[in-house]
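Practice problem 4.
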């Protein structure tokens, strides 16, 4: 047993509270549920992301994870009641000083108290005092989440501007499973980061909209063990699904070979190759308001797939490989038809033409691509320097088609280099704006 202060810090985070380089003050409120242990990872991520973090657990949360853990992770004293350190008026100061409040897990009881405007412990008082953006991540049994009381409390909190993220679906504490799991800390940290950058980024302007998003990179099989693939990780499409769902959309993610965690509240349909992706996208787009082709689809596939492993043939060098064209899924989804989704979004990874003004040539290529594909919006990434693939950050320009074929496509948004959620929010803005126009 070591005394406090004897042991190595639980997490080596090079940020002390109040030092330069801190992005802002985040209060992490922790409700009394088993998912409290996941909030430890959230605190660690937020500190690694240069936030000064104060943890405010409820008394019940401290039954699950003790105060020393929260203090070691956050670097701040922790208390659940309003009578500790009375001269500091912490029941008011904690909320006043916050730039962002995240409640994870938000239990049914805590949501009820927050919706009722109660201030019976430090966390409830903080929620009543703060004027900073508030993100709540509910975690509870499905029966509690779907109970009319919780449904009404969620609606009340959302109507006041609280961002309530839908819980993830899966195994719950007992043998049961269903909606009620706390979303993964990586998703909560990503949403917190976005909300801190832009308090409007998670406004619920996509409620009732059905959006189908493709993500990842297709694999075209050569034989049972080999394929032709590409470097797309799927991160941009997953970020889009995360943000669109948080903004109220009903999101289906057609995921081609991405090794990423499913975003909360999103239905995931796995596919492998371009033709499977096409079938899924065409089927799902039938009743969608918007479709987004963020997947990197192979333009060609092997003319045939061997049923057994291809063997080396002596003297055969180079090895011939016949390729045939894959369907252009974006062009097909964009074709005018009665069932066409109102908004079809494509992505284009472009390099400049090597001239002195590469941006102009990137935009010229992009305008030509938007017209050729027939989509409504085109998100253009510059990939001159290998950016956009396998990295967490991205930048982009969004082009919107004119009203008539051949009209000039306007740049409607520019997202500077930043997390993929920032570009995702800009794409959601453009989709929401387009959907709100008359057809
Ligand atoms: N795309 C698609 N089906 C394909 C290839 C691409 O739906 N067979 C979609 C991508 O998902 C993306 C957009 O088309 O949204 C642009 O992809 P890109 O590879 O830039 O387009 P290409 O048509 O292959 O153009 P280029 O000649 O520049 O490679």
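Answer key:
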């Amino acid at each position: 047993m070591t005394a406090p202060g004897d042991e190595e810090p639980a997490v080596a985070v090079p940020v002390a509270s109040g030092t330069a380089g801190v992005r802002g003050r985040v209060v992490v409120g922790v409700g009394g549920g088993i998912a409290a242990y996941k909030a430890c990872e959230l605190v660690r991520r937020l500190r690694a992301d240069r936030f000064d973090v104060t943890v405010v657990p409820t008394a019940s949360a401290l039954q699950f994870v003790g105060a020393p853990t929260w203090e070691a992770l956050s670097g701040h004293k922790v208390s659940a009641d309003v009578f500790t350190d009375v001269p500091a008026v912490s029941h008011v100061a904690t909320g006043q000083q916050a730039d962002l409040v995240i409640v994870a897990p938000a239990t049914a009881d805590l949501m009820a108290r927050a919706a009722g405007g109660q201030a019976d412990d430090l966390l409830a008082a903080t929620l009543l005092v703060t004027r900073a953006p508030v993100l709540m991540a509910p975690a509870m049994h499905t029966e509690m989440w779907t109970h009319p009381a919780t449904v009404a409390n969620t609606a009340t909190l959302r109507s006041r501007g609280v961002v309530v993220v839908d819980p993830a679906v899966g195994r719950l504490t007992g043998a049961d499973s269903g909606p009620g799991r706390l979303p993964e800390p990586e998703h909560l940290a990503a949403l917190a980061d976005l909300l801190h950058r832009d308090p409007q980024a998670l406004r619920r302007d996509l409620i009732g909209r059905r959006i189908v998003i493709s993500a990842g990179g297709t694999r075209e099989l050569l034989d049972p063990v080999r394929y032709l693939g590409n470097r797309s990780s799927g991160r941009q499409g997953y970020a889009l699904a995360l943000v669109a769902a948080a903004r109220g959309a009903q999101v289906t993610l057609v995921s081609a070979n991405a090794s990423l965690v499913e975003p909360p509240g999103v239905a995931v349909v796995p596919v492998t190759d371009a033709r499977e992706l096409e079938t899924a996208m065409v089927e799902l787009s039938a009743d969608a308001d918007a479709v987004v082709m963020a997947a990197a689809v192979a333009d060609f596939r092997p003319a045939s797939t061997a049923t057994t492993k291809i063997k080396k043939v002596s003297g055969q060098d180079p090895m011939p490989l016949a390729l045939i064209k894959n369907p252009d899924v974006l062009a097909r989804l964009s074709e005018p038809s009665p069932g066409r989704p109102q908004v079809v979004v494509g992505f284009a990874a472009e390099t400049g033409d090597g001239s002195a003004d590469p941006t102009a040539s990137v935009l010229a290529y992009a305008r030509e691509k938007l017209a050729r594909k027939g989509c409504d919006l085109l998100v253009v990434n510059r990939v001159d320097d290998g950016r956009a693939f396998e990295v967490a950050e991205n930048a982009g320009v969004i082009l919107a088609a004119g009203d008539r074929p051949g009209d000039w496509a306007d740049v409607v948004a520019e997202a500077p280099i930043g997390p993929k959620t920032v570009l995702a929010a800009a794409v959601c803005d453009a989709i929401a704006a387009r959907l709100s126009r008359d057809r």
